[in-house]
Design goal:
- The complex is a heterodimer.
- Chain A is built from seven helices and no strands.
- The longest helix of chain A is centred in the C-terminal third of the chain and has 27 residues, at about 145-170.
- Chain A starts with a helix and ends with a helix.
- Chain A is globular, with a radius of gyration of 20 Å.
- By secondary structure, chain A is an all-alpha fold.
- Chain B has one domain (about 65-330).
- Chain B has 13 helices and no strands.
- In chain B, helix 3 (about 75-95) packs antiparallel against helix 4, helix 8 packs antiparallel against helix 10 and helix 10 crosses helix 12.
- Classes of the chains: A mainly alpha, B mainly alpha.
- At the A-B interface, helix 2 and helix 3 of A face helix 4 and helix 5 of B.
Chain lengths: ~170, ~325
């Protein structure tokens, strides 16, 4: 009973916080609601006994990415949202995008497995330790996707530096 | 009944840890003023109580009774929230620090990372404080502080990776125990590069001299806390000192052997085992606190671009190199 109560609280809170995030007019407030949202997601990981993922969620998303968001919002000094001209203003477009995402979710639902598959059973993970299992899986079984992700993240970084250097030369 | 007893015990332990920490923080200010006073040829506080020993309490009472000023155009909810975010996140990291053997509130498997996570949350308090005050000095101080803390957190994390590799664990108690058979009973000898990087980053992370740019008086008045007064100002001050303690504790635990004694020392002098571990722990923490004050009295402040250059161009590459070499040595030579 207790896990269900906890989970329903977190599920509802995450949805509510996500709504608050997208509806705030003040961008700084919006970012702070998102921070609370990320903390709730970290708590969900904790309930799954994935303490490493929970902490990394806070360090990476809350500690690095969101701080950069906040930084940007503050540097541009966007106290209130600007009424900029939108590229597409029609509500039909938004509905279409939402339906598209929903379709993807529904189609991929049958792929979700409740039971652990392969060699990573709950006993095995508890015995070896969550962090270690994650590391071994990531650097042995999934090393290629991992490196690809790193490359994908690396390319825009180089691009940003190149653009910045061009500006400086002028 | 059993459950209630356990909960009661933990609550009591939490209360004791927080109360003792607050007392330590109060006397850290006294310690700092005395040390810096002596180093500058003064005598420091002497008037309140015996040799000025009641000075911290006088300061506390003073800041509690001061008028609480809120700027006119401030974003009030965030202005109130900012000091709370900072103090809460800093205090939460106290939970995972083992003060003696099995002496932590929560013995997490990812203890060090937990402290990092909490430190990265404290940045929000600083940015929000600077932004919500609606003052340009506070704002600039907040932006600077955020840039500084984010940059140095990277160097700090990577330098600690060497320790994780050596200990094979992220658990603070395991890291302490892994150091017993190291040379001198501490990782600071074998991980000397990581140790130096970590100490420099710890100074930057806690906004201490020579990296106290967020509060550079000559440029920014008092940085992000310019508009704060009275109790809220005291909260920021409290958070700064607690985070100094946390960093000192991390240095003591990860590099200086924590509450444990080196193996060769306990074999030579077995009676030292009888001394409670917290004594060694506090000794190391206070040695590092003294180092903070010593540096403050010695070094001038860096310029902001120098600060960024040190962080990104020296500390991070050195830390990465240290991590790679440690991993290589551990893989092929040990």
């Amino acid at each position: 009973m207790l896990p269900e109560i906890f989970f329903s609280y977190f599920a509802c809170a995450i949805l509510g916080l996500a709504l608050l995030t997208v509806t705030r007019r003040n961008l700084v407030h919006s970012v702070l609601w998102m921070l609370l949202l990320f903390l709730h997601i970290a708590c969900l990981y904790l309930f799954l006994n994935a303490e490493f993922l929970a902490v990394i969620q806070v360090i990476v998303y809350a500690g690095a990415i969101l701080v950069l968001f906040l930084f940007l919002v503050m540097l541009l000094n966007l106290r209130e949202e600007h009424e900029a001209r939108r590229f597409v203003h029609a509500w039909q477009g938004r509905v279409a995008v939402c339906l598209l995402i929903l379709t993807v979710v529904v189609v991929s639902l049958h792929k979700v497995s409740v039971q652990p598959t392969g060699g990573y059973t709950i006993d095995f993970i508890n015995q070896t330790g969550h962090t270690k299992v994650l590391g071994t899986a990531l650097f042995n079984q999934y090393v290629l996707p991992f490196l690809m992700t790193a490359l994908v993240l690396f390319v825009p970084m180089v691009a940003a530096i190149v653009i910045a250097m061009k500006e400086r030369k002028r | 009944m059993e459950l209630l007893l356990t909960i009661g015990k933990s609550v009591l332990f939490v209360a004791v840890v927080f109360a003792v920490t607050l007392l330590h923080v109060a006397y850290a200010t006294y310690f700092e003023r005395k040390v810096i006073g002596r180093m500058q040829g003064r005598i420091g506080p002497v008037e309140v109580g015996f040799r000025g020993l009641l000075q911290p309490f006088a300061d506390m009472v003073k800041s509690l009774f001061k008028e609480d000023i809120i700027p006119n155009e401030a974003d009030r909810p965030l202005f109130f929230l900012a000091p709370v975010i900072v103090v809460a996140s800093v205090m939460t990291s106290l939970a995972v620090i083992p003060f003696f053997n099995n002496g932590s509130i929560a013995n997490l498997n990812v203890g060090v990372l937990f402290i990092f996570a909490m430190a990265s949350l404290a940045v929000y308090g600083i940015i929000v404080a600077g932004w919500s005050s609606n003052s340009k000095y506070a704002f600039l101080g907040g932006v600077r502080s955020a840039a500084q803390v984010i940059s140095y957190e990277i160097a700090m994390g990577i330098s600690l990776a060497g320790v994780f590799l050596m200990a094979g664990s992220l658990n603070l108690s395991d890291i302490v125990l892994a150091q017993r058979e190291q040379p001198m009973g501490m990782f600071a000898v074998v991980q000397v590069v990581g140790f130096v990087v970590f100490v420099i980053s710890a100074f930057a992370e806690t906004n201490r001299t020579p990296f106290d740019l967020p509060e550079a008086e000559t440029e920014l008045v008092a940085g992000y806390l310019t508009e704060y007064s009275g109790f809220r100002y005291a909260l920021f001050f409290l958070a700064e000192y607690i985070s100094m303690y946390i960093m000192a504790a991390l240095v003591a635990l990860c590099y200086l052997g924590g509450w444990a004694l080196p193996g060769f020392l306990t074999r030579a002098l077995p009676f030292l085992e009888l001394v409670p571990g917290i004594v060694w722990f506090l000794l190391k923490v206070y040695a590092f606190m003294f180092f903070y004050f010593w540096v403050r009295a010695t070094l001038p402040r860096y310029r902001f671009d120098q600060l960024m250059a040190i962080g990104w161009k020296i500390l991070i590459p050195v830390a990465v190199l240290n991590m790679v070499i440690t991993a290589g040595v551990k893989r092929w030579l040990m």
